[in-house]
Amino acid sequence: MAADSITATPETSRVRGLPGLQALGFNRAQSIAFLLLLAFLAIGPFFLYPVFLMKLLCFALFACAFNLLIGYVGLLSFGHAMFFGMGGYLAAHSAKVWGFTPELAILTGGAMGALLGVISGWLAIRRQGIYFAMITLALAQMVYFLCLQMRFTGGEDGIQGVPRGRLFGVFDLSADLSMYWLVAAVFLIGFLLINRVIHSPFGQVLTAIRENEPRAISLGYRADDYKMLAFVLSATLAGVAGGTKALVFGIATLTDVYWAMSGEVVLMTLLGGLGTVFGPAVGAAVIVTMQNYLAEFGAWVTVIQGGIFVICVVAFRAGIVGEIARWLRVRL
Amino acid sequence: MPDTILDSGAILETAGLTKEFLGFVAVGDVSLKVRRGSIHGLIGPNGAGKTTCFNLLTKFLQPSRGTIHFDGRDITRLKPAEVARLGLVRSFQISAVFPHLSVLENVRVALQRQRGGSFDFWRSDSVLRRYDDRAMELLEDVGLIGFTHRPAGELPYGRKRALEIATTLALDPVMMLLDEPTAGMTAEDVDRVVSLIRRVAAGRTVLMVEHNLKVVEGLCDTITVLTRGRVLAEGDYATVSRNPEVVAAYLGTDPSIAGGTHHG
Ligand SMILES: Nc1ncnc2c1ncn2[C@@H]1O[C@H](COP(=O)(O)OP(=O)(O)OP(=O)(O)O)[C@@H](O)[C@H]1O
Ligand SMILES: [Mg+2]
């Protein structure tokens, strides 16, 4: 890449990372964290249940997509479940009814997220702060209601028995380990795409808008257009995450469009570290693991989860990764 | 009288410009003409409506009545980003930098406007390095070369104002609106900013709000005095400062400023 030939200019503005990874925009600490992540993805399925890992990665991607909006634009959406859940429905429907191959079904989920993102963003993006959160919540509730009523979603039953199918029409994904590699790839692509967005000319303007919106406008940037694109990107990736999850479990249900799911992704992101690159994935991992291992406590899971959340917010305000980064004096 | 009359026509002209907040007239029936190539001062006591005027001119506020023409175009209905794109660029009364971006990146974000929109989220931001040289030149111009990689939020106040000017200049604006560029600065910083404004005003038009009358006297070709949202007087410094109404308006609110009028 041409980028590498210019890196020799005296002191670039960011502390650059390991040679191969700097093109991705990672600093040194982030490069190391990323290598650890790759290692985890590669050996994880040989130590942990692939289905558990796949669930974790779907939520991790969902949280990363959400973080793009709150961490880098400063917009708190309280309706992200609509993108995640509807992405799931569309992926499930297209795989089961239209016979789409898994990669196309996942892309269909993403397209659904994008479409919903355009519609809801058009309605919400001009609002600030709590009004933005309220409008996105209201829209998500409408989507939930539609999902409850429409035929294609299967109402209370959801869409069940969704086949994983064959990747590109060739590779059978019915074995969990095969499916795992697809999910890991989807997560990795999504994760890297988000990172690229942050470190792109677009991301630079986005940062400027978050830092001082009137000033960015006074420089001639139409702030709403930039926020809108970020919103749609976030919604698209949330749709991809939801679609992938539907294929993993072979089912799409109301749970994923319910407002509690919007809350859960907020929780994951805050817990892991809002505005950090790795935080949302870590937050998602913690929550999913907790739900998994605390399942035997039944209804108490929510209470325990709430308690842990309160402790985290009080003890480490910047989130797990945020606090580690502060402690190590690096950006993660 | 100014010695550099590039074009005697007005570059910015308002007619009957009015802004009411719930019946309170913050700016009332202001008809302002700013000559192309001039440095025009907008002065007046606190709460006179100077910042509101700036907000109206740059469309951060929508006027209740009146029209604004810039460079031969009616900009009354435009959005603020559009006004900026026409080359009418403002600074803010409260220092406006991007605090967590480096000093260099602050200027570069403005230079980046040359690309048009920056919606290319798939491209690496290393393409922005082509603006580094120009950014360094601008930083050198305002004496910030030693601060390039510091987060802008860590700069001392006077340096932040200098950075703001560099950022505004990066857009190569036709006209700059500066809202109290020297407020809160040490005497040394004031001198630096004044000579900077004089230098960068060449080939542009500047409209500035300023409380420091010494600065106004030294820089401005024409001065408009605003009180309670209305134009009280207009003319060059000598004329305006002799106007008894102006002296009264200043004495009535802030004697310390009026004291400055008599500065030798
Ligand atoms: N958004 C607003 N809503 C209501 N009143 C406002 C608003 N903005 C300004 N005002 C009022 O309009 C008047 C003019 O304010 P403005 O900020 O323009 O004054 P100014 O001349 O810039 O004063 P200063 O020298 O203190 O900066 C003030 O009385 C202020 O309280
Ligand atoms: Mg003011």
TrEMBL record, chain A:
<feature type="transmembrane region" description="Helical">
    <location>
        <begin position="130"/>
        <end position="152"/>
    </location>
</feature>
<feature type="transmembrane region" description="Helical">
    <location>
        <begin position="228"/>
        <end position="253"/>
    </location>
</feature>
<keyword id="KW-1003">Cell membrane</keyword>
<feature type="transmembrane region" description="Helical">
    <location>
        <begin position="56"/>
        <end position="84"/>
    </location>
</feature>
<feature type="transmembrane region" description="Helical">
    <location>
        <begin position="297"/>
        <end position="320"/>
    </location>
</feature>
<feature type="transmembrane region" description="Helical">
    <location>
        <begin position="265"/>
        <end position="290"/>
    </location>
</feature>
<keyword id="KW-1133">Transmembrane helix</keyword>
<keyword id="KW-0472">Membrane</keyword>
<keyword id="KW-0812">Transmembrane</keyword>
<feature type="transmembrane region" description="Helical">
    <location>
        <begin position="104"/>
        <end position="123"/>
    </location>
</feature>
<dbReference type="InterPro" id="IPR001851">
    <property type="entry name" value="ABC_transp_permease"/>
</dbReference>
<dbReference type="Pfam" id="PF02653">
    <property type="entry name" value="BPD_transp_2"/>
</dbReference>
<feature type="transmembrane region" description="Helical">
    <location>
        <begin position="177"/>
        <end position="194"/>
    </location>
</feature>
<dbReference type="InterPro" id="IPR043428">
    <property type="entry name" value="LivM-like"/>
</dbReference>
<protein>
    <submittedName>
        <fullName>Branched-chain amino acid ABC transporter permease</fullName>
    </submittedName>
</protein>
<feature type="transmembrane region" description="Helical">
    <location>
        <begin position="29"/>
        <end position="49"/>
    </location>
</feature>
